[in-house]
Amino acid sequence: MTNVSNVSIRNLRIDLGANTVIEALDLDVDAGEFVVLLGPSGCGKSTLLHSIAGLIDVADGSIEIGGQDMTWADPKDRRISLVFQSYALYPTMSVERNLSFALRINGTPKAEIERRVTRASEMLQLGPLLKRKPAQLSGGQRQRVAIGRAIVREADVFLFDEPLSNLDAKLRTELRRELKQLHQRLGATMIYVTHDQVEAMTLATRMAVMRGGVIQQIGTPAEVYARPDNLFVATFLGSPAMNMLPGRLERREEGMRFRSEHLDLDVSRYPFKTLPDTTLPCVLGVRPEDVRVGADLAQRGNVSLVEPMGNHRVIWLDYHGAQIASIDQDKSPVALGDACAFSLESAHISLFDEASGARL
């Protein structure tokens, strides 16, 4: 049976040549969690994953797996399985031989090999494919074999380095669902790297958003999406991204207000982390689904673009030079250039310090 271990990273620093890619990074992954490392290309997420696997030496800090210091342990001794972006299957071997190869090399008893291969193939629906060669498989089937090869090792921690990025959209959706179900069946500790926010939001029990080798925010997908810690997280997550309106925060006798040249909004009930004493330049953020369009609403803009999305549409409004996106379920006709009334759901706004970008 698969063991389940936690991962604890403290004060990690990784240098690649003369460049420090990751510095003073801390991360805790509880046993049985599915943690997704999300961020743009070059943010250090794959480097972090490879350091956990032991493929990259660290310059400072520690990596513990299951309470044991594995900072300098060989990859084979870390009780991990790693699934790469490329399938890396042996082309002359059958699916069954690809699944069992590492076990045979390690001298695992034949009966144990058969048990593990049977278990993995049942989980991933590979039974009918065991006698085929990789060239006879689709891309999704090949990636399932690569995942199965990781499962048969019955590791303590499973690491995934953008395993779905080479697949088309339909296969990504199917395999994403299979991965989530696999985690539910195994109850294993999984750490998954991606730049795809849909993968992160649907797979993760917690997600860590990275930028420049630094974890910007970690939390459940719902927490990170609803209450981003800074402007980067707010604009990186969401499609379309969060709308941003610059202005200032003012303290009035009647309470706190956000004001700009064209907007005056009561934010007295906003859950401030620290309530500013004076007027403060800030940025108001609101998700497109929290921008409501319709007649007789508070603000007005001109329709600059309509994007039909099947079960909804995205209406873009030109609001005094700013582009405001609204996710709209209504089917009433809207034409380019139309004047369109809209309002912001004040209970769902975010406020950020303009200077630091931090959430207020």
Q: Which sequence of SSEs, written as H and E, runs from N to C?
A: EEEHEEEHHHEHEHEEHHEEEEEEEEEE
Shape: globular
Question: Taking Cα atoms only, what radius of gyration do you get, to the nearest Å?
Answer: 25 Å
Largest sheet: 6 strands, mixed
How far apart are the first and last residues' alpha carbons, in Å?
47 Å
Q: Specify the number of helices.
A: 8
Percent of residues in helical segments? 10-25%
Strand content: 25-35%
> CATH architecture of the largest domain, please?
3-Layer(aba) Sandwich
CATH topology type of the largest domain: Rossmann fold
- Give the tally of β-strands: 20
> How much is the average pLDDT?
91
Model regions low in confidence, pLDDT < 50 over at least 5 residues: none
Query: CATH top level of the largest domain?
Result: Alpha Beta
Explain what you see:
- This protein has 360 residues and is of the alpha+beta class.
- It has 2 domains: 7-235, P-loop containing nucleotide triphosphate hydrolases (Rossmann fold, 3-Layer(aba) Sandwich); 241-353, Beta Barrel (OB fold (Dihydrolipoamide Acetyltransferase, E2P)).
- It is 23% helix and 34% strand.
- The chain is built from 8 helices and 20 strands.
- The chain has helices at 45-53, 95-105, 110-123, 139-151, 169-186, 197-203, 221-226, 231-236; strands at residues 7-16, 19-29, 34-38, 60-65, 68-69, 80-83, 157-161, 189-194, 206-211, 214-219, 243-252, 255-259, 264-266, 280-286, 291-293, 299-308, 313-319, 322-328, 339-344, 350-353.
- The chain has a 6-stranded mixed sheet with strand order 6-7-8-3-9-10, with helices on both faces.
- Helix 2 packs across helix 3, helix 2 runs parallel beside helix 4 and helix 3 crosses helix 4.
- The protein is globular and about 75 Å long.
- The relative contact order is 0.12.
- The model has no long low-confidence stretch (mean pLDDT 91).
